[in-house]
Design brief:
By secondary structure, this protein is α/β, with parallel strands linked by helices. The protein contains 15 helices and twelve strands. Strand 8 and strand 9 form a beta hairpin. The radius of gyration is 23 Å and the shape is flat. It starts with a strand and ends with a strand.
């Protein structure tokens, strides 16, 4: 999974990136200090995998990972090359989802590129730049489909679909909010549009605003906007996350308890991302390796096996499956098997989060 972190300059975007990845991206109080996109890979915490590691003492421990890309601050006119422009729009295009950091704090010592704090204005500036970049893409797609339709009438429907989408975009609306049939949306998805990407609004507050964020005026504006758009919103304090990132596990737990929160911003962002993209993890375990595999909800056993190796999918015979909670309750595979908790599942089995699987295949 690859998430692009975007936002206007000086909203706390690179501070948040540094905190969640410990990658040390430069952070400064002026626009465009992040010239090239910084990339950080973080592991997905999973207590189930830790339990399996204790059980098997494997040679290798491989958790799921998320790749974060810190993309330089966008400004008005980015779609036309303003600021650092199209280079960064292309970096967003390579991501699975967008984490849009929105400034929800006042600070006279931190310059705001627009001169004042207004989270909805900031959101709409970036959303509009993505929409405008998409309009160019859609116009090219329409022209291409029209030319193809001269030789094959089936492309006329494609022209119709994208002309409807272009009208929607021209009203300043994101592609993800375009209402159409599932089949037409599948067609639209082939165009790799920026405003079609799922989005999480990270409402970045100062320490005071975050401690009582539910009554924070800026946060509530972002929350309402996100709900209307069908997006997710994550309350966060990038400065606090930086402090958390520098602590060891024991001190981190104490600090979180003092703050009255159970999870760090990174843990909450990971859960948000999995939910947004409809992802789950299944597990494989043995003396060689314990590993988490990320798949989409609704994936069937053979396709999940294909994540490990194409041969597993091609020669799939069956999957031996046990739910993690059942294994934990029994303590070991031998007892679980004696109690009949290990199931033999076929090609139509839909994988569940936390399934521990051994595949049987023949190629």
């Amino acid at each position: 999974m690859k998430l692009g972190i975007v936002g206007l300059p000086n909203v706390g975007k690179s501070t948040l990136f540094n905190a969640i990845t410990n990658a040390g991206a430069e952070s400064a109080n002026y626009p465009f200090c992040t010239i090239d996109p910084n990339v950080g890979v973080v592991t997905v915490p999973d207590e189930r995998l830790d339990f399996l590691a204790e059980m098997y003492n494997p040679k290798k421990y491989t958790p799921a990972v998320i790749e974060f890309v810190d993309i330089a601050g966008l400004v008005k006119g980015a779609s036309k090359g303003e600021g650092l422009g199209n280079k960064f729009l292309s970096n967003i295009r390579m991501t699975d989802a967008i984490v849009h950091v929105v400034r929800c704090f006042d600070d006279v010592n931190v310059i705001h590129v627009e001169g004042s704090t207004d989270p909805i204005r900031d959101i709409e500036i970036i959303n509009l730049e993505l929409v405008m970049a998409d309009m160019e893409m859609v116009e090219r797609r329409i022209d291409k489909a029209k030319k193809a339709a001269k030789g094959d009438k089936k492309f006329l429907h494609e022209v119709e679909v994208f002309e409807g989408l272009l009208e929607h975009l021209d009203g300043g609306n994101s592609a993800r909010n375009y209402e159409c049939s599932d089949e037409d949306m599948e067609l639209i998805a082939t165009s790799d549009l920026l405003s079609l990407k799922p989005i999480i609004y990270a409402a970045n507050m100062d320490e005071t605003g975050f401690t009582s964020y539910e009554s924070n005026e800026y946060y509530n504006k972002v929350k309402e906007y996100a709900e209307n758009e069908g997006a997710q919103v994550l309350p966060i304090c990038a400065k606090t996350e930086m402090e958390i990132a520098e602590l060891d596990d024991e001190d981190k737990a104490m600090f979180l308890e003092e703050l009255g929160i159970s999870e760090s911003g990174l843990d909450r962002l990971i859960k948000c991302s999995y939910s947004l993209l409809g992802l789950i993890s299944y597990l494989t375990a043995g003396s060689d390796e314990v590993r988490a595999w990320t798949i989409t909800k609704g994936t069937k056993a053979p396709q999940a096996a294909g994540k490990i190796h194409s041969d597993f999918e091609r020669g799939f015979i069956r999957a031996e499956v046990i739910a993690f909670d059942d294994l934990k309750a029994t303590g070991n595979m031998t007892t679980a098997r004696e109690k009949g908790l290990i199931r033999s599942e076929g090609k139509e089995y839909v994988m569940k989060d936390g399934d521990i699987v051994t595949y049987r295949f023949n190629v």
